[in-house]
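[Meeting: bench + compute handoff]

Bench side (C.D.) handed over the final construct sequence. Compute side (W.E.) agreed to return the predicted structure before the next meeting so the bench team could plan truncations. Sequence as handed over:
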Amino acid sequence: MNFARFCTANASKYPTREFLVESFPSSGTRRVLTWEQLDEQTNKLANYLTRECGLKKGDCVQHLLMNSLEWYVIYMAVLKIGAVVSPLNFRFASGDIKYACDVTRNRVFVLSEQFVPRVEAIRAEIPFCESFICLGDDVPEGYTSYHDIIAAGDPSPALVDVEDDQTAELMFTSGTTGAPKPVSHSHGTLFWIGIGNALTYNEGFNSNYLAPHPFYHSGTLFLSFPSFIAAGKILMPMELKPQLLLQSIVEEKCTGGWVTVPTWSDVISAIKSGEIYIHDYDNKLSALRHLELGAQPVPFVLLEDTKRIFPHLPVGNIYGITEGGGGGLTNCYDEDILRKPGSIGRATAFMEAKIVDGDLKEVPAHQVGELLIKGPRLMKEYAFNPEMTAQTVVDGWLRTGDLAYMDEEGFIFFTDRAKDLIIRGGENIFPAEIEDVLRKHPAIQDAAVLGYPHPRLVEIVMAVVQLKPGHSMTLEDVIEFVKGRGLARFKWPEKVVFSDVPRNPAGKIEKPRLREIYVKPAKEEMERLYRASSAELDGLA
């Protein structure tokens, strides 16, 4: 079954029904894509890709755009012809983009004009990419205009039959050494992701689902699938300032959605500071049935504040990874959030979870081990890497690399990451990549990179830098160096400590010791300040 079939099926039943909305509340404007328009535009692009670009089943298309109506059109057009779509993180630097292209050997690249400089920097190094399609008003020479394709394209049906296990997309996520890993999902797994999320969050035909974050992120994209399957609606608020986000939710009568920790923290902070008077929204958020928070561990104080301010709004603490079909693998539902403080909940529809030891044997309740998940929404494989796939998926169980324990009721409590991972505002960052870059500086003897507490992003990149004798550096020097080495901006160190880097007798960096020295005190102080500010919320609810 071709997952893109719902474009055509829903267009035939509800041609004028709105599917996708861009909301700009500051100007009172909106852009809309109906189901009929979605089907027609995906057909036009799909026919161009097959006839003019010569794409066939299994060929790959790189996809690099900010959120827009066109983002979804391009994604589904590629699926319609049985090709493989690879949506890239728009924060990727040129080196990351080249790596993704080298892995996928994409024949076509679709991008918006703002990313042309990044692609031009590596275009000569990807000769296998034969066609470049550009979205924007200023299309450079050597690129085909996306708008011209849509304006003059052939809208005749373009849907092809594919098997359920046919690869549909390759979504890149960071690897243990910093190199992005291509996570492969089939048409079948995309369907099960959509159905599972529909049952878990009661989303579907009557939904107007909130999607404020980038679609390249598996959380945003996959949680939108219930609306795609059942002819519901998806709301893209294009302005995320707290007041404007709430305005979009109210004006569009949003029913539910997934919001990252930083974005929702901004809303709560604006309410606590008095920038937003919450009683102005009494009875205006009545359509909102639920809200999920995630992309990284959710501070419990944020959940507490949310329930105090919005006592009647069901809230979920959601956990997911790209390999497992994004957000929705586990969820701590509203009625359990305060009863089970710190829990990421239980496995959701069709999913199983267990905690195992180093020998992959299940452990008793309350014993910490690695979290494993199982179900029909798991990735097909790490593309082109059967060895890594075999290490990660064992007897149908996906090894998450996350450490957790489970209580007697099956509630899971996240404790740590087995992987050396930083999650900055929902973006996965592996310290090894940054450490390798830093050690190339002629003045740096050694470097250790940690996640440092941050009130909004939860974690930022901190570097402990050991200088060679007789050398000195500043934070600005460090940033300038990693920038010059092509490190994507979100990976730049935001805090640097110049000190010795301790290593154990085996030569490994003693990161637990560094976390005890630098991270633990900062986390405790941030928690203290957050709770002090929360005390000011009395009487707001």
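W.E. noted at the follow-up: The first helix runs from residue 5 to 13. C.D. will use this when planning the next construct.
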